[in-house]
Amino acid sequence: MAKNIAPYRIYVIRCWEEQSFHANMNVYRFTLDVPATGQRIGFTSSEELINALELALSQIQTQAIADATEDSPDQTI
Predict the structure, then answer these.
(1) Residue of higher predicted confidence among 70 and 48
(2) Closest CA to 43 of 71, 13, 67, 21
(3) What is the DSSP letter of 22?
(4) If DSSP codes are grouped into helix, strand and coil, which group holds residue 61?
(5) How far apart are CA 71 and CA 66, in angstroms?
(6) What share of the chain is helix, strand, coil (3-state, %, to 5)?
(7) How far apart are CA 64 and CA 68, in angstroms?
(8) Is the dihedral of CA 70, 73, 75, 77 positive or negative?
(9) For residues 43 and 52, is the Cβ–Cβ distance under 8 A?
């Protein structure tokens, strides 16, 4: 049976600049908000943010494949 999953996802990415107290330079901070779940995750680098997005999207794709496999009729003869 098909699961009731929205065909799209919404992610809100926020980025801001802060003064570093340990170094005489500015650093960027990021948050990733998932409005559907209320989840908010903070990151100290763009690489961490991208890795989290890639992981979330790969999990969605894996689940979609598993759901499609469950919904397809048995192919045995």
Answers:
(1) 48
(2) 13
(3) S
(4) helix
(5) 9
(6) 35, 30, 40
(7) 6
(8) positive
(9) yes
Distance between CA atoms of 40 and 42, rounded to whole angstroms? 7
User: What residue segments make up the domains of the chain, in order of their start?
Assistant: 12-71
Structure tokens at 1: 């049976």
Confidence of residue 1 (pLDDT cuts 50, 70, 90): very low
6 backbone dihedrals φ, ψ, rounded to 5°: -60, 140
From the CB of residue 64, how many other CB atoms can be counted at a distance below 10 Å? 13
Q: How many residues does the chain have?
A: 77
- Amino acid identity for residue 5 in this structure: I
Would you say 23 and 2 are in contact if contact means Cβ atoms under 8 Å apart?
A: no
> Which residues are bridge partners to 19 per DSSP?
26
Is residue 23 pLDDT above 90, yes or no? Answer: no
